[in-house]
Amino acid sequence: MGAYIVGVLVPLVITLLFRSSKNGKKRGVPVVVGGEPGYAIRNSRFESPVETAWEGITTLAELFEQACKQHFDKRLLGTRKLISREIETSEDGRSFEKLHLGDYEWLTYGQAFEAVCNFASGLAQLGHRREERVAIFADTREEWFIALQGCFRRNVTVVTIYASLGEEALCHSLNETEVTTVICGQKELKKLVDISGQLDTVKRIISMDDELPSNSASVSDSVSWTLTSFSDVLRLGQGHPVEPELPLASDIAVIMYTSGSTGLPKGVMMTHGNVLATGSAVMTIVPGLGSKDVYMAYLPLAHILELAAENIMAAIGISIGYGSPLTLTDTSNKIKKGTKGDASVLKPTLMACVPAILDRVRDGVHKKVDATGGLAKKLFNLAYARRLSAVNGSWLGAWGLERLLWNFLVFRKIRAILGGRIRFVLSGGAPLSGDTQRFINICLGAPIGQGYGLTETCAGGTFSEEDDTSVGRVGAPLPCSYIKLIDWPEGGYLTSDSSMPRGEIIIGGPNVTVGYFKNEEKTREVYKVDEKGMRWFYTGDIGQFHADGCLEIIDRKKDIVKLQHGEYVSLGKVEAAVIVSPYIDNIMVHADPFHSYCVALVVASQATIEDWASKKGIKYADFSDLCQKEETVKEVHNSLIKAAKAARLEKFEIPAKIKLLSEPWTPESGLVTAALKIKRESIRKAFSEDLAKLYSS
Predict the structure, then answer these.
(1) Can you list the alpha helix ranges (DSSP code H) found in 23-99?
(2) Cα distance between residue 392 and residue 470, in whole Å
(3) C-alpha distances in angstroms, 327 versus 103, 211, 357, 495?
(4) Which tens digit of pLDDT belongs to each residue from 442-496?
């Protein structure tokens, strides 16, 4: 009954706050700062940048220890028990692994802290010295978090590497940082064995899994590695405890290798103080964080968004349940049919997402509604239209009895996909389309806090507040940051623009990182310290400030191409506008200065296009054959044009020709990053012949 009352009262309060925000609430206000001339904004609630939200706490190691003492008996880290692993074969002969997973098994804060201390001691007993670096190369799981905190207790710098990173980038990251110990999973250990001859400094491998891949047996014969299981390191540390060597705020906590959307990845050096500043700032923005919350952890911990989020959750006393994108829901690819996905079992209240994940949720709901058809489809469309109209207008329709009716009849089933208790979603890593943001708002009944930040700013930059129901913006500056716009005359963006100040976004504050590891030239290019000692990062993104101090991302310097007749095309802007087409799973727009139009490579949505083909009576051998048919290309292109016109794109911005692709772009293929952002140069090289044909045809 209490939860029901909260469910009614909280939205009402939000609405009243929203009405006040409509009346001119200032979320960000101008501030005078040093450095390059521009237009700077700070958070309206804090006059100077926030460095820590916890008195006397200056490092992540201190923060974790304090939380474990405060919440000793509360559940912290949860992992689902593996009941069975099965291989299914599809009609076309392809094999798929399916998992039957059980309930979550939990470590309390006290047990987790004991494991962290044991790991720190075990690492020292293995011979790893404090000045040497450790790399964690694995998917997100509880051992990842324990290893991270264990390294922090010894003031050991952790190099984070995406589990999907290719061989060349993996060798580069490990050799450049001279890593001596690698902590990995079974899948990643196989990759390491395959490239063992190319690794210069690795001495020790700690496997998170007791079961080892078949190719690891011969490692000891060919290289001088010692191979130890994670559980053995814990036992070793338990029997031989070592005193901690806690870090200072200025010590490097993490060297985080970017996923490398262009060229080889760069290692961003983050201090404890950098990450703590972002976490402290987010604490002031996300509403009502408390120990009753449950967080769904499934994004890569090698990404600053997830690493910062989990450190915040642990600091507050929140339970963290681990999952993966492939087991997240009941219908996820790796979940055995008839069994439960991670969210259904965990029932989280909080989760972080990248836009690609939210786009998939939206598309999945649309596909299910379309497949059901009939009265159910009509009811969903009516409910959605009524809720959308209400959110944009009458607050009684938005939060009154009608809202409760639609929630019960329609949206309750959709919310059950993610466990039914989500109350706040944090989105970051890439721009979120307004359509998807509104769809998730309505269908999940939860606000989306859309943030803007970069690895180089520890994910800190801006964050939208709960009572801001606008879409397409990324909020006001976080309390740890100043956001400044500076002129970019070449692109036509000036801070003196009459309607709204526009320009390149630069971010200043204690969350701005030290720079790139062993790359002074690039560091000097994009990091600058002003006469007051403030450190600024030049993002290369183009933004504009709204009257209330909120930021909108409108362009990116690297994504702008000048066409043959002088028009500028923003590739990212076009992609964000047209990906709302139900036929498109992913897209890369390409523009050539020697042509007067742009073209696009489109990853086709198989379920949607096959459903369309079935209704049209189109015969085809397989999906690849269907994507090559002229009528299919025409249908998808028309849908793309419709979306572009709805977004009011200029004629020269709309791709004149498209190539339909039947195979998805994955991190494993090297065509998208681990955060699912497209790797433009890699795609251009992989499909150079297709692009050439589009321009010549």
Answers:
(1) 60-70
(2) 9
(3) 13, 21, 13, 46
(4) 998 888 888 999 999 999 999 998 888 888 899 999 999 999 999 998 878 899 9
pTM of the model: 0.83
β-bridge partners, 159: 135, 255
Nearest Cα to Cα of residue 156 among 172, 140, 179: 179
Tokens of 78: 């949860």
Instruction: Outline which parts of the chain fall under CATH 2.30.38.10.
Output: 2-49+354-420+422-556
- Between CA 67 and CA 219 the distance in angstroms is 40
In the chain, which segments carry CATH 3.40.50.12780?
60-90+97-349
DSSP string, 387-418: HHHHHHS-HHHHHSHHHHHHIIIIIHHHHGGG
Would you state the structure tokens that stand for residue 38, as one six-digit string? 């521009």
Which overall architecture, per CATH, does domain 2-49+354-420+422-556 show?
Roll (2.30)
Alpha-carbon span 376 to 368, nearest angstrom: 10
**Residue pointed to by tokens 């299910």:** 368
- Encode pLDDT of 550-562 as tens digits: 999 988 888 888 7
CATH of domain 563-696: 3.30.300.30
- What is the 8-class DSSP label of residue 234? H
For the domain made up of 60-90+97-349, give the CATH fold. Answer: Rossmann fold (3.40.50)
DSSP letter, residue 587: E
C-alpha distances out from residue 60 to 63, 68, 120, Å: 5, 12, 15
